[in-house]
Write a structure and sequence with these properties.
single chain, 238 residues, alpha/beta, nine-stranded mixed beta sheet, two-stranded antiparallel sheet, 9 helices
Length: 238
């Protein structure tokens, strides 16, 4: 017996780092498989899910600059990495019999579709998971900001940020096990307390569109469904 879903149409932001697991480079196939299973479970319960994928785990401008390149080159490589990561996640979803569509702001017609708001909404309503390659190519407009914009465009009930930890803490819980975990915060609290959730542009976009940001651990089995049913450990920023 499961509870009704509190948030039905959601956008989940996954960084490239979240897909790494404990890897030092690239993505961990076991982690991708586990995340795909989480998303599949939510879809089977009636959730409409979009996923924005980051690519910073593979290429960053700093690493490219160390090889004699420049930041622009690094960002372009990061955009390519988001597509690579997105295709991997979509493939894992299909293995769980969940239809997935990879959309991108970067036109690569042979491997992914160009994002349009109307197209994305239609796919989600049909039960497809939208996997959005989130690379923006703009160091001042992060994947978090892009995800918040997508959540607003698709009129999502919530913007979920899947992280390594199960919410927002007063300190790094890996360093201080006694750190306080916040259950609920306001956007103003996040900014004034300098809590490292996401960049201020993403916070402003979510706040202006009245979309709650929910931070939880994507690595905890069953976490995504438990969040959508309003149970488990997570922090709501609203």
């Amino acid at each position: 017996m499961t509870k009704p879903l509190r948030w039905r149409r959601v956008l989940l932001k996954l960084s490239g780092e979240a897909l790494m697991g404990s890897q030092s480079f690239g993505i961990d196939p076991a982690v991708v498989e586990r995340i795909a299973l989480e998303i599949a479970s939510a879809v089977k319960l009636g959730a409409q899910v979009g996923v924005v994928i980051g690519g910073g785990n593979i290429f960053r401008g700093v690493a490219v600059a160390a090889k004699g390149g420049n930041r622009v080159t690094g960002d372009h490589m990061g955009m390519l990495a988001t597509i690579m990561n997105s295709l991997t996640v979509a493939d894992a979803l299909r293995r769980h019999n969940i239809p997935a569509r990879v959309l991108s702001a970067v036109p690569v017609p042979s491997i992914c579709e160009t994002f349009t708001q109307r197209g994305a909404e239609r796919y989600m309503e049909d039960g497809d998971v939208i996997v959005f390659a989130g690379g923006t190519g703009n160091p001042f407009f992060t994947t978090d900001s892009g995800a918040a914009l997508r959540a607003a465009e698709m009129k999502c009930d919530a913007f979920l940020k899947g992280t390594q930890v199960n919410g927002i803490y007063s300190e790094d819980p890996k360093i201080n096990p006694d750190a306080e975990r916040y259950t609920e915060l306001s956007y103003e609290d996040v900014i004034t307390r300098n809590l490292k959730v996401m960049d201020t542009t993403a916070i402003a976009l979510a706040r202006d569109n009245k979309i709650p940001v929910i931070v939880f651990s994507i690595h905890t089995p069953g976490a995504l469904v438990s969040v959508l049913e309003e149970r488990g450990l997570y922090t709501v920023v609203s």
